[in-house]
Design goal:
By secondary structure, the chain is mostly helical. The protein contains 5 helices and no strands.
């Protein structure tokens, strides 16, 4: 099954985000271990989702949804894990909600594309 151009662009974006989290995990020697584990989970889920999207696999929307949820959880957990004050935490829920909404749109699109018989642009 051939993947569409938009799915491949989405795969690259998801992969780049995963790479950023892998770099952050590698650099975060002073971060709490749970945060490092979250970065690794985001990286792994991003790679799985990116490969699925690139190939146009039927399971890719599920992998993309998992990636988005794991990323949103990481963002929300930054406040307590890094002991941020109330002012610094104020945008975390908004950021996580934005990730969830964008992920939902991407999952909807990916699901339509991989479920359709023809994956032309």
């Amino acid at each position: 099954m051939r993947s569409s151009v938009v799915l491949r662009i989405l795969a690259v974006l998801v992969g780049l985000d995963g790479l950023a989290h892998a770099i952050e995990a590698a650099r975060g020697a002073h971060d709490p271990r749970i945060l490092l584990a979250e970065h690794v989970l985001v990286f792994v889920s991003a790679v799985v989702a990116a490969v699925g999207l690139w190939r146009g696999s039927r399971w890719s929307p599920w992998a993309l949804a998992a990636f988005g949820i794991i990323t949103a959880v990481l963002v929300v957990s930054l406040g307590p894990l890094l002991a941020l004050d109330h002012g610094a935490r104020s945008g975390l829920w908004t950021g996580a909600a934005t990730i969830v909404v964008l992920t939902a749109v991407a999952v909807w699109y990916a699901n339509r594309r991989v479920a359709s018989p023809s994956l032309d642009v």
